[in-house]
Amino acid sequence: MLSSCDCATAANSVLFLRRIGTVALLFILASLSWFVLYKAGETIGFKIPDSLTSHAPRVFFFIPPSPPLPPPSVLKDAAMEDKTVILTTLNEAWAAPSSVIDLFLESFRIGNHTRELLNHLVIIALDEKAFSRCLVVHTHCYALVSEGVDFSKEAYFMTHDYLKMMWTRIDFLKGVLEMGYNFVFTRFIGILSATPRKLASGNFRNFQDADVMWFRDPFPQFYKDADFQIACDHFLGNPEDVENRPNGGFLFVRSNNRSIEFYKFWYTSRETYPNLHDQDVLNNIKYDSFIIDIDLKMRFLDTTYFGGFCEPSKDLNVVCTMHANCCFGLESKLHDLRVVLQDWKIFLSLPPTLKRSLPPSWRVPQNCSLDSLHLYAPPLENVIQENVEQ
């Protein structure tokens, strides 16, 4: 017969073994969960680079949720009371000091009721250097790294990297809508406006890099009943006319079932229209009956308020944004954007009576004229060969 001491020892041994088993089971479950999450991240093309994990807590990574997850802290911290955020993307090509990013932020600081909007701006960095630069110049920074493509350099229009960049953006914005956030999106990445082959032949019809200077709060000019509203290269006078030529460099989207379904449709339509970029696909699907079926309210923004180099706004008394579209080459863009900021500062210095009686207009485009597209001649032979191989 076992003594009471022996029984206690046996009971303790059983309890110890149970605890070991429980710990081992928890470890196995945790390992499996991590493995599943890691493989899921690889599947959708996003990963956390090792070099970024050492940053302070302001580092945020986003994996588009399906189904939606709780919103990342960076979006929550930047959101307005109605859960609206301002989003822009940045890569290394335009993140250098005294480059376009500094002009972009300066426009907010000198604009009319735009400085406070910086509190709601999230810069989505597409590479490590852009993220590091963002931390220097802004508060809300977001590291979005896509596996299998280099987003750090200027991407030639319609190359593989360009298309990957554009469709990653559409998928990302769909995820933001699914998390319940409205957004103003202003594209801000280094894109060369045409492939070298198209430049050599003169066969190009669309210019896709888009950098927007903000001079007035745009929200009063947005349509109250619209789900999706977008700036135009050319505005025909009717905001509901689908014949307007939209430009995806500036848009405002409200989060609801209609806009989410539209972004899903837009993203999947890349398979229906292979080798087209997001804006050309939009120009095709805007006629689709699906838009009517989901009752999406689409509006096109008037260039009077949301002008660009393609179609400049005429009156600085009412302009909200200035869009550096229809421009090729970083140096040309920087030159003309600096002129835009100078024009705005001159306008601000005028007495109110002179502003109203003789509304000044922009002195641009200058270097961003169509002639500059033909004069710009960097050594492109290697890039031509690369595009042929792709």
Automatic annotation (TrEMBL):
Entries under InterPro entries matching the protein: At1g28695/At4g15970-like (IPR044821), Nucl-diP-sugar_transferase (IPR005069)
Transmembrane residue ranges: 20-38
Methyltransferase is among the record's keywords: no
Pfam families to which the protein is assigned, alphabetical: Nucleotid_trans
Limits of the Nucleotide-diphospho-sugar transferase domain: 117-186, 207-337
Keyword Membrane tagged: yes
Keywords from the UniProt entry: Membrane, Transmembrane, Transmembrane helix
This protein's name: Nucleotide-diphospho-sugar transferase domain-containing protein
Organism of provenance: Solanum bulbocastanum (Wild potato)
